[in-house]
Design brief:
By secondary structure, the chain is of the alpha+beta class. It is 50% helix and 14% strand. The protein has a five-stranded mixed sheet. 27% of the residues are buried. The mean pLDDT is 83.
């Protein structure tokens, strides 16, 4: 039902899809989603399997997607990574496709998990446009050096706090919960 909240996923191996038959992969993903009773439209865009799914807001999406992708492990797209967009409407699908592709590209840098949510990659999304080389090095030197030095001198956790703060989209209450701290401690660290 296209009136419901939707998700877009991008599925593929981390090393690229050269030499892989996307039609066979799409068929395998379609079967895996059907067996999970998850309505979807599946295809291939620029070598990545792409699917538009109905969102399941009260479900453990990570586990559900992990189960679906587990069914692909022996097939055409063996050991795939999944990038997941934020929930969207039909009108927002172009943005969702970009988010899913970004999560697929950046996710493996953040963890060894196979399913990566766009919302969970805040710091990586912030830093990835800087690329590698002098631009990123200069950014780290200019902006993060004082935090790094403070943490080293005082065995502190300011970088960890910044990471949690960015992952929670600037919400200090969510940051406190993620770090298992009182809100006052987060406010103090943010000063």
């Amino acid at each position: 039902d296209l009136d419901e909240e939707l998700l877009m996923i991008a599925v593929g191996p981390p090393e690229g899809t050269e030499g892989i038959d996307p039609d066979a992969g799409a068929t395998e993903l379609r079967k895996a989603l059907k067996s999970a009773r998850w309505p979807a439209v599946v295809g291939s865009v620029d070598g990545l399997l792409t699917a538009v799914l109905t969102s399941r807001p009260n479900a453990d999406l990570g586990r559900m997607l992990e189960d679906v992708v587990g069914g692909l492990s022996g097939g055409t797209f063996a050991e795939p990574f999944v990038g997941v967009s934020r929930p969207c409407t039909v009108a927002q699908l172009p943005q969702a496709q970009s988010e899913a592709r970004t999560a697929h590209r950046l996710g493996p840098s953040s963890s060894k998990e196979r399913v990566h949510f766009y919302d969970g990659l805040v710091l990586y999304r912030l830093l990835s446009p800087l690329g590698t080389g002098p631009t990123l090095a200069n950014f780290v030197e200019d902006e993060l050096k004082p935090l790094i030095e403070h943490d080293e001198r005082h065995n502190g956790e300011l970088l960890q706090t910044l990471d949690a703060y960015l992952r929670s989209n600037g919400n200090k209450i969510v940051t406190a919960r993620a770090l298992q701290l009182q809100r006052r401690s987060v406010y103090y660290r943010m000063e």
